[in-house]
Amino acid sequence: MSPHTDTLRTLNSGGAPSDVEISFNNxxxxxxxxxxxxxxxxxxxxxxxxSIIGPSGSGKTTILRILMTLETPDEGVVTVGGDILWDAKxxxxxxxxxxxxxxxxxxxxxxxxxxxxPHMTVLENVIEAPIxxxxxxxxxxxxxxxxxxxxxxxxxxxxxxxxxLSGGQQQRVAIARALxxxxxxxxxxxxxxxxxxxxxxxxxxxxxxxxxxxDMTMLMVTHEMRFAQEISDRVVMFDKGVTVEAGPPExxxxxxxxxxxKQFLKAVNPYSRQCENSMSDGCVEQALAGADSGEPYAGExxxxxxxxxxxxxxxxxxxxxxxxxxxxxxxxxxxxxPGIRCVGFPDxxxxxxxxxxxxx
Length: 360
Ligand SMILES: Nc1ncnc2c1ncn2[C@@H]1O[C@H](COP(=O)(O)OP(=O)(O)OP(=O)(O)O)[C@@H](O)[C@H]1O
Ligand SMILES: [Mg+2]
Prior knowledge:
Radius of gyration: 21 Å
Bound molecules: adenosine-5'-triphosphate, magnesium ion
Number of strands: 13
Oligomer: single chain
Distance between the termini: 23 Å
Strand content: 15-25%
């Protein structure tokens, strides 16, 4: 990690010290009669990793886009690193000012659809904004870009263009590109939702690494509940423009206090979604959660298979994956089986799906 540690350390420098990295104070936003944010109050501490969950259309992306100054709030105050990004008075149209632009530069965002420049190489994508927006030299921008591309595992692809890469690789380029602007706050808007299931893990691994090795503030909208549980300091359940419930991941996922949160978590139950026809990260991780809790799983034993078992400390599962049926066991928590066992489950798939969880 040594070259990367230096690269990432510089990302957090500068800016006024503040106890609150992001704050939304009574923020409202409507499109016509559709009031998307309703007097939202919400804070994120410096270095905190926060996941936002909530139903479609509830305003999650709007929160991130306001922080990127891609949307303007109708009312309320938004600050980043103690500096005002928006100070919106009702009835007065917001305008970007020098101050807004300077504050907005503290924030980087990774979009659902990557948003890379398709005609530029990977390297050109990463150096473009540092040169043209930050005004740093091409040589310096290139040196840092190479370091960041190494961090996301794509150094050997720097001369390729985005259409020559897989979705997972493109999203990793997008992460490097955002990091190249040295943001102190990183926003992720469902960064894996446009990816094929087998590519999700490689992107989550990069985000996991950023979350665990840097003190960057991270705000992530995600449907990968198990991942949110793993990397977040705090999870915010959001609906109809307001916060329904916020707390540590154990509380929100294992002991939600609000009925709306319970309903939502049931509706996005990964057995019925992610496990269908796939070996996605979240699916296998739910198997592990089952092993942990000792609860029997009925799973979704429909045409696509799903989780079955397990009340003996092992989670068993079976899937129909493409035209092949695979099944296996993962676990185990007891001392004499410290690793992951894949029984009747192709080794390669097993490693790809669960190999990154060293603590299992
Ligand atoms: N530019 C826009 N013009 C009009 N309506 C918009 C615009 N952007 C968002 N909306 C509306 O605002 C609401 C919230 O949208 P937003 O994208 O923030 O939701 P979300 O929680 O991110 O949903 P999803 O989980 O589907 O991504 C939706 O009803 C959406 O249709
Ligand atoms: Mg969204």
